[in-house]
């Protein structure tokens, strides 16, 4: 009787150990499963452009996503939302931000003050967090100023060309007029000389 009992105990110890290991593995995987990927950590933009701050998170539970902007003007909270629930947008970004299910946001009509660091935090309900950073550089649109200068230069060159042509035509007309006047004067002088000769 003793041998079968010992074998049964041995089997239950093995089964109990395997069950405990599986339960521990399942318990470790379930609560802390949050990850965050930031595909583009540096974004260059020009004034009045729309930019996408792209991220991709995965989470086993319900996640809360928060975006903040840090620059020389200070730290500003942009938006915070819970997957599938509420969205809390800062008043400064009310009409300028769009949120996406994967944790990304889009900023519309960026200005020079939008340059700086953008921090995203994904907080999982069991207390696990993931962090990401994107640097945004915003530049003024210099090519529009150059475009204006080029258009102005072209316009002035065209006006100058027209004025030069007009002056050339005026000069040519004046030259022809002087030639005709000189020819008429010569003809009338010749006629007077002939008349005087006849009278004499």
UniProtKB/TrEMBL annotation:
Keywords: Glycoprotein, Membrane, Signal, Transmembrane, Transmembrane helix. GO terms for cellular component: axon; dendrite; plasma membrane. It is found in: Membrane. This is VSTM5 protein. Its main location: membrane. Residues 41-126 form the Immunoglobulin V-set domain. It comes from Irena cyanogastra. InterPro entries: CD2/SLAM_rcpt (IPR015631), Ig-like_dom_sf (IPR036179), Ig-like_fold (IPR013783), Ig_V-set (IPR013106). One of its GO terms (biological process) is positive regulation of excitatory synapse assembly. The gene is Vstm5. Pfam families: V-set.
């Amino acid at each position: 009787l003793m041998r079968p009992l010992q074998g049964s105990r041995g089997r239950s110890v093995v089964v109990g150990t395997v069950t405990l290991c599986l339960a521990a593995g399942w318990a470790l995987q379930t609560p802390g499963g949050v990850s965050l990927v930031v595909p583009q950590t540096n974004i260059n933009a020009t004034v009045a452009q729309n930019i996408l701050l792209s991220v991709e998170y995965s989470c086993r539970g319900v996640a809360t996503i928060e975006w903040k902007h840090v620059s020389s003007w200070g730290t500003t909270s942009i938006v915070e939302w819970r997957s599938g629930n509420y969205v809390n947008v800062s008043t400064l970004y009310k009409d300028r931000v769009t949120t996406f299910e994967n944790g990304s946001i889009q900023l519309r009509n960026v200005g020079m003050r939008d340059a700086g660091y953008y921090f995203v935090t994904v907080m999982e309900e069991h207390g696990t967090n993931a962090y990401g950073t994107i640097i945004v550089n915003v530049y003024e649109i210099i090519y529009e100023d150059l475009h204006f200068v080029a258009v102005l230069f072209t316009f002035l060159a065209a006006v100058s060309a027209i004025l030069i042509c007009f002056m050339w035509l005026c000069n040519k007309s004046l030259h022809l007029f002087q030639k005709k006047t000189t020819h008429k004067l010569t003809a009338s002088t010749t006629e007077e000389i002939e008349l005087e000769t006849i009278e004499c």
